[in-house]
Amino acid sequence: MTNLDIETFWAVLHHGTMTAAAESLYITQPTLSMRIRALEERVGTPLFVRGKGQRHIALTEAGQKFLTLAQRWQQLLAETDSLAELGQREYLRIAATYTTNQYILPPVYKRFLAQGLPVSLWIHTLRDVDSAQLLLQHELDFAFIDSNTVFDDRLTVRPAFREPFLLLSPPDSPYSEEVETSSLDVAEELLVTWDPEFIRWHDRWFGAGARPLLYADTLQAADFLPPTEGRWVAAPAIAAASRIGKSAKVCRFTSPPPDRVNYLVTRAGEPLSPPAAQFLQELREHLLALGNVQVYL
Fold first, then answer.
1. How far apart are CA 32 and CA 19, in angstroms?
2. Phi-psi region at 179: left, alpha or beta (left = phi > 0; alpha = psi -120 to 50)
3. Which positions ≥6 away from 19 have C-beta within 8 Å?
4. Do 133 and 145 meet the contact criterion of CB atoms below 8 Å apart?
5. Is the CA virtual torsion 108, 109, 113, 118 positive or negative?
6. Coil, strand, or helix at residue 267?
7. What order of strands is seen across the sheet that includes strand 165-169?
8. Are 286 and 108 in contact (CB under 8 A)?
9. pLDDT by residue for the chain (297 residues), tens digit each?
10. What residue ranges in 97-164 does DSSP mark as E strands?
11. Which domains does the chain have, with CATH numbers?
12. Cα–Cα–Cα angle for 105, 196, 282, nearest 5°?
């Protein structure tokens, strides 16, 4: 049995007459009749009820059973076509920390996908150590981490971009454009544990035993707090910019935390695929259009 047999069967079944079926297939009626006879000879039984004066062709009992087989054949053919299409597509697998995936990469994902490339994009939000492990297992193309804590000769870690920390507070807060760090009340703070360098800065200014109002590992926790005037949180510039004029006032520290550096991690000695290189170029252009960011890509 061939695809031509199934195509002929469905044409007759769908149109109901030999004439209409032949026209839909752009063949003559005798040619269609010959195809139907050949198919019925292959299956060993008539599939259609044909008779004089009968306006529409109906299925025999065997034809009803063959209908199920024809449906399965079509499904298998569709799955085969899908498999062939997938084989023509590439995969770009990217991992990043929560903040990077939440505030930095979404516009880049949008720009990359808008190009209509034959590339399926896989996005993962992972801790630094998990990204390193998946890279070594060849389950990622590259990853972004926010602290240079990956030490493995099989991986290359290099700075991708740097952004300063800014102070976020409620829109009507009394803080000036530049806030004296020593004047801040840690009891009004939402402390996000960004990275080890940030924690060392925090301990130096407020003491290792400081008791902030709320501890969190993401900036979204700021939404849980009532907008009391003195509330504040330190946030990287790009994340802070997403809240300007909406739910927060943005100020500078007189003695800010060390800049937050995002690192690009790849497999050592292995060139990036063309889609990966294209994505990084889109990221570079996006970052260059922003303020307060140093780009190393």
1. 9
2. beta
3. 29
4. no
5. positive
6. strand
7. 178-179, 249-253, 165-169, 233-236
8. yes
9. 677 888 888 888 888 888 888 888 888 888 888 888 888 888 888 988 876 666 678 888 888 888 888 888 878 877 776 655 555 668 999 999 998 999 999 999 999 999 988 999 999 999 888 999 999 999 999 999 988 777 889 999 999 999 999 999 988 888 999 999 999 999 999 999 888 899 999 999 999 999 999 998 888 877 766 778 789 999 999 988 877 656 788 999 999 999 999 999 999 999 999 999 999 999 999 999 987 899 999
10. 119-125, 142-145, 155-163
11. 3-87 (1.10.10.10), 90-162+260-295 (3.40.190.10), 165-253 (3.40.190.10)
12. 15
- Cα separation, 264 vs 283, in Å, equals 12
Minimal CA–CA distance to 290: which of 244, 256, 255? 244
Look at the block and give the residue holding tokens 């943005």: 250
How far apart are alpha carbons 245 and 239 in whole angstroms?
13
Exposure on the CB side of residue 177, measured as CA atoms within 13 A:
0
Residue 55: Cβ within 10 Å count: 6
DSSP structural state of residue 45: S
Overall pTM surpassing 0.90 (yes/no): no
The first and second tokens of residue 7, run together, are 């195509």
- 167 burial via Cβ count (<10 Å: 0-12, 13-18, 19+): buried
Q: What is the token pair recorded at 139?
A: 């389950």
